[in-house]
Design brief:
alpha+beta, 2 helices, 24% strand
Length: 135
């Protein structure tokens, strides 16, 4: 993958905070639930669910990056936190495409320009996963 294919909001090295609602919105799911959502998304998208950032320390959060402004189109259940345009600024950490980005990394591959997780599909999978966990 060449650097030209990677969006300009992905830092060249390390990781940086990015304001949500500008380049992307994000849906955050914690720990094994986030991994389960990602697993199901990957199965439904032939292994290309879109950009997903994983925190490998602390809460072990998984961040699903969706197109900017689309997070408010769905009612996200408890257990899924929405980061999008809001009254207050919300930032998430974005890792570089490669190199040392601890404690963040791209769960599959870094994104290419214009690539996002499908918000409607993500919402369906999150609802199914969280309802299954409660049942």
């Amino acid at each position: 993958m060449t650097r030209k294919e990677i969006p300009d909001w992905v830092p060249a090295s390390g990781h940086q905070l990015r304001l949500t609602g500008v380049h992307f919105d994000a849906i955050r799911v914690r720990g094994v639930r986030g991994e389960a959502v990602l697993h199901h998304l990957a199965m439904l998208t032939d292994g290309r669910p879109g950009p997903v950032v994983r925190e490998v320390a602390g809460g072990r959060w998984t961040y699903f990056l969706i197109p900017p402004g689309t997070s408010s189109r769905h009612d996200w259940p408890p257990g899924a936190t929405c980061f999008g345009p809001s009254v207050r600024d919300q930032y998430i950490g974005i890792p570089a495409a490669d190199g040392n980005t601890y404690p963040l990394h791209w769960r599959l591959d870094p994104p290419v320009v214009g690539e996002f997780v499908d918000p409607a599909l993500l919402h369906t999978v999150v609802i199914a996963q969280l309802c299954h966990d409660l049942g």
